[in-house]
Amino acid sequence: MTRIQNRAALAQSPAHETVLDALLAGIEASDPATVVESTVSLDGDQLRVGETTYDLAAYSEVVVLGGGNAASQVARALEAVLGDRLDGGLVVTDDPVETERVTVRPGDHPVPSERGVESTRQLLDRAAAATEETLVLGVITGGGSALMPAPAAGIELDDLVETTDQLLQSGAPIQDINAVRKHLSAIKGGQLAALAAPATVVSLVLSDVVGNHLDVIASGPLVPDPSTFADAQAVIDRFDLSLPDSVSERIRAGVAGDLEETPKPGDPIFEHVSTHVIADGMTALTAAADVTEAAGYDSLVLSSRVEGEAAEAAKTHAAIANEIRATGTPIEPPAAILSGGETTVTIDGDGGSGGPNQEFALSAGLSLDDSTIVGAVDSDGIDGASDAAGALVDESVVDRQAAQAALDANDTGAYLQARDRTILTGQTGTNVNDLRILLVEEGSLKAGGDESE
């Protein structure tokens, strides 16, 4: 079970406690053990996933294949359901847990590594060994793009690392980032499904992508890829990226038609592939809102699909909180505003520590009065370039000049850590994107006299 390691320093009032409780509830609701138990069951030979049933008697083996931040937790939860009906498999992750039947191999996130390449090679070999009598339970979770690197012919790992670094720092949305990565890979963009054919594939997805676009989650290794080499080139041009020669040459060759495209919608390899999203951002938001409602706050879920620059999205959220405080519109205080999605940070200069959720919290804090608390976390427990999941901020910890300087330098982590406002959970074993809560009180948080620093 996830816990907040520095809770004592953060929980300075009942309102602070409520925000922390709600954030934790959101994370725990999307825990793989919880969601697998509620969506997957076995009755004799009948395996139920959601509303669909699969007859295990029709297959000679059942294996788990895939990867992502939460992949080993999903694999362990599937072992608990299937027991000795499961014949093994392999997943790649950066957050391993002990399993009995499924092999867990290491990878790294957010930048791919050599050990991830080797682990993914083993995954591809296992997929290629599947036959028409194999039932593959495909485990796809957030983080899979970096954790399962399989450089295409002519691309070295260093080329992928440099390309990934530039894409992440450009501020490009995940759809654009993955359009490039899919065309530099031997696994992404439906290519894992191509290797596993003619097996039956049942994909279980924990979505960390706004809108649950299946081709974007972990770069869509088990689903058709609607993006093209031309789309990848357009991303490179739009963000004015200067990528390694091998990458540029491969993309140009693909645009010219000299390389085979990734599998597209309508390809017969997908006739025996089905996909089930078993948890997403709304899973976390619903659980968090239940906590704030139970604590007496009128709760408004804005959206599970918030994107854009973290600091700018924060200003909009803060404006809504201030409107609630000033006019009781759209809801009366005490109130909770909740949202999910995936904001980004465009790095200016060298950057520093922190991540989108820490930028969001501090930027919102600059615009909030002393009646509001903002908490924001990445559900996987790792927010950007930091060891923190996110941050908990109120007006009392905002030194306007220093806070703005930290935002300008993309160094919010250092600012917040120095004031004991980062939220530390460690890796949570799940990944359904960001979770944000703004709690608007009826009166000042300072009214009781014991909430100041």
UniProtKB/TrEMBL annotation:
Keywords of this entry: Oxidoreductase, Pyruvate
Q: InterPro entries in the record, alphabetically?
A: GK-like_C_sf, GK_N_sf, MOFRL, MOFRL_assoc_dom, MOFRL_protein
Annotated Gene Ontology cellular components are: cytoplasm
Q: Which residues form the MOFRL domain?
A: 336-434
Q: What EC number(s) is this enzyme filed under? A: 1.1.1.81
Q: Name one GO molecular function term.
A: glycerate kinase activity
- Kindly indicate whether the keyword Oxidoreductase belongs to this entry: yes
Where in the numbering of this chain does the MOFRL-associated domain appear? 21-251
Protein name (database record): Hydroxypyruvate reductase
| GN (gene name) | gckA
